[in-house]
Amino acid sequence: MFRLQSPEYLWLLLAVPVLLAIFVWYWRQRRAALQRFANRELLDHLAPGLNRRLPWTKFSLLLLAIPFLALALANPQWAAERQEIKRRGIDIIIGLDISNSMLAEDVQPSRMERARYFSTALVDELVGNNLGVELFTCTSLMQAPLTTDYAFVKSVLSAAAPYQISAQGTNLAEAIERAEEAYEEGSANHRALILISDGEDHTGSAAAAAAAAHGKGLLIYTVGVGKQEGSLMPVTLSNGRKDYVRTTGGGAATTNANPATLEAIASQGGGAYFPLTGDSKALANAIRARVDRIEKQEFESQSFSTYDSYFYYFLAPALLLLLIEFSMGWKDRKRAAAFEI
After folding, report:
1. Are residues 243 and 145 in the same domain?
2. Pair (55, 163) in one structural domain
3. Quick one: what percent of the chain has pLDDT higher than 90?
4. What DSSP element (H or E) covers 271?
5. How many CB atoms sit inside 10 A of residue 58's CB?
């Protein structure tokens, strides 16, 4: 199969008639001006060696080089062989808790910052799979559908913050149920949910939801961030003043991470619980190792051809023509007196 890699360069061929028309007009104007200036015999003495044929020769060489250059830039190619690539993986949704409790600074710089950094590192480890992003508080939002656009997935995760969902609280059961709805049909037993949270749950039904989802072929892994000791949740008010999340009574509210809830979800969901306490990249690698055990499914099969380029067959004569044109002078010094203007 033949193709031009960059066919837009063929537009350079339009320069050939344009340059030819300009040169013909210029040459006629030049000849008329010389005839008005002096007769031919006088010009032979005033400008010995000028030749009316030599400029046409140089211009012809330049004009002939343009099509070769255009074809060289367009890069003609012939298909060398055809290859088929099959992509295999699973559907993975990363569920990120963005409730106010994630603002706590019991881990530095904050639970939210640690979770965001870890989740983007996790994406790098899960390349090759379909990835989606779910943000949740007491309600859930599929912020990124299952995709292989990993740059988009990372941008969604890196921008996650509590302000994206106004309703606060944490409902891990709904996060699991909403994630189930986002998986593609036919991906049962080829899907996983990774929940990143501090484990606070205001419903207490998350383990039951995990068990039900696992019964339908979903594996659930949980990542816990934060400490169990009570911690304040700093916020920045609209006027720029620093304050803390407060209770209805006006006192500063505290939050306690609850790893037991996340352990129960992972246990009932057939996965595993991982505390986010050390190296994020090492933890992401450990999760990838567990996810890699899940049976892969074939997502798509793509066929493509590899091509051999032949631009040099056109570049070589173009350079040769230009070199000859450049080496030719504008005067014939040996026969200067004999040339006609």
Report:
1. yes
2. no
3. 48
4. strand 270-275
5. 17
The reply to whether 338 falls in a domain is no
3 state DSSP class of 236: strand
Per the model's pLDDT, the better-predicted residue between 278 and 207 turns out to be 207
- Say which amino acid occupies 203: T
Asked whether residue 65 falls in the same domain as residue 123, the answer is: no
Instruction: Give the domain range for residue 186.
Output: 86-301
Helix axes 172-182, 259-268, angle to 10 degrees: 40
CA neighbours closer than 13 Å in the CB half-sphere of residue 185 = 0
The 10s digit of each residue's pLDDT in 80-98 is 777 666 777 889 999 999 9
Residue 256 covered by a domain = yes
Residues 53, 163 within the same domain: no
Q: What is the pTM of this model?
A: 0.64
Give dist(CA 67, CA 325) in Å, integer.
15
Domains identified in the chain, total number: 2
Kindly compute the dihedral angle of the four CA atoms of residues 124, 154, 194, 201, in this order, to the nearest 10 degrees: 150
